[in-house]
Amino acid sequence: MGITASLFYNSSTEKQTLHRRITPSNEQKEAQKQRWNELADYLKAELKIISGYSIYSWLQGSYKFKTQLRPLFNGDEFDIDLGIYFQWQGEPHDGEFSPLQLKKMVQECMEAYRQHQNDIKKVASPKMRCNRIHYEGDFHIDVPTYHLDNSRDARALATEEDEWEESDPKAIYVWFKQQFPDEDIRHNVRRLIRYLKAWGILNLKEGEGKPSAILLTVLVTESYELLSEEERSSDDNALTGILRLILARLTQDSTVYNPVNHAEIMSDRLGKNGITALKKHIEQFATLAQQALNAKTEVEAADIWSTVYKHFFPLPEAREEIVKFSESRQDSLLRQVFTPTIFVTAERKKPLSQRTNNWSGIDSIGPIPKNCSITFKLVNTSSLPPYVTVEWTVRNEGAEAEIENDLGHPAGRGHSATENSAYKGVHYMDCVLRQYGRIIGVKRVKVVIN
């Protein structure tokens, strides 16, 4: 089992892990479920009246696969794909309406639906292969429009170019489930898919080898059965093994087919240069992952993983481990152990009469109210070894921060940092000191906000 296994995933819902921090909370899942159910019910009823056809809905995409991520950047949104199916026997062109006419029906119904809902921000202009509705709470629902012939179990997607496009989201979902009949194994694979998707979102740019979610899903699914038992023993081991297998697979053959429709080459969307870039990115990630597995301590390994997953990767308490790490060094550079002392002050931005407006503490603070300015200052700077850098990272926890999808951010470098109290709960300002690029000191400053 890898040294950071418990930081990747833990069956306890309370423990802070990478998987928990990149996954929607139960409250967010319920809010999304309620909204797509209400939208689906409305569209099915209205479109049946307007078109005269029976209407069927089916969830697809990451929500259906159970690999959905929370928004990882400010301004990003949860994405739900809700397919709407107009049912008639025969070919798509046998219907009474063109693809574009059906897409316009869906768009008009969504705009009418918006008039009766207070939590909808807007209905976007029609996209090439779907219509989109944006909700408060950082999420949107994409609504692709299909023809469905139940007798042939055949589907076709309506596009904005007034064309029918071959597309069967159900088939690839069924394929995925059939690869892993064991539900426990399916859970493991889903976590690996989430880790790869989060890596792509946090580190890669569009047009520079960034893979689609469905491409990553297929690559992970194809590779999982080739993992050894040891590699499957923990998520950090499994992720490192999956990266190695995907890299070998793409190096041998970079063509990735849709597993349920070999006429579609999924890797073609990246282009030749994109595939080359993707292989390079995966090679770099695989090298880094192996370094994390080889780390002597949990703190060192967590720090390496954090270069990929940023503040979403949790940081463990560190004092004893850094001492052990420093004593085990065999190279010529002595890594001195330094225990940072952090003086913390908080001040209400809008002072209240006859109330406490200022707080202070050493290495922790709180409880303090919301809407305070908080300053963190390294006070024992005179004892710092030479060539030391000081890095600050906010890691938020708790229901309020999760609902707002604000689980932290880098907070700068230097001997001090300033932040604000925004969410009720227990949060951390993590201070990491490096000498010659390696950790020599860590302090997790607890901030309790009520």
What is the count of DSSP helices, taking H or I runs of 4+ residues? 13
Distance between the termini: 38 Å
What share of the residues does DSSP label as strand, in percent? 25-35%
What is the overall silhouette? Answer: globular
Helix/strand/pairing class, anyone? alpha+beta
Radius of gyration: 25 Å
What is the count of β-strands?
Answer: 19
State the low-pLDDT regions, or none.
330-334
- How many domains, in number, for the residues? 3
Give the % helix.
25-40%
Profile the largest sheet: 8 strands, mixed
Structural description of this entry:
The structure is a single chain. This protein has 450 residues and is of the alpha+beta class. The protein folds into 3 domains: 26-167, Beta Polymerase, domain 2 (2-Layer Sandwich), CATH 3.30.460; 172-294, no CATH class; 317-449, Sandwich (Immunoglobulin-like), CATH 2.60.40. 37% of the residues lie in helices and 26% in strands. The protein has helices at 5-8, 18-22, 26-51, 61-65, 99-114, 169-179, 183-203, 213-224, 235-252, 271-294, 298-309, 319-327, 399-403; strands at residues 54-60, 78-87, 120-123, 131-135, 139-143, 145-149, 154-158, 164-166, 257-258, 261-265, 342-348, 358-362, 364-368, 372-378, 388-395, 408-413, 416-420, 425-435, 438-449.
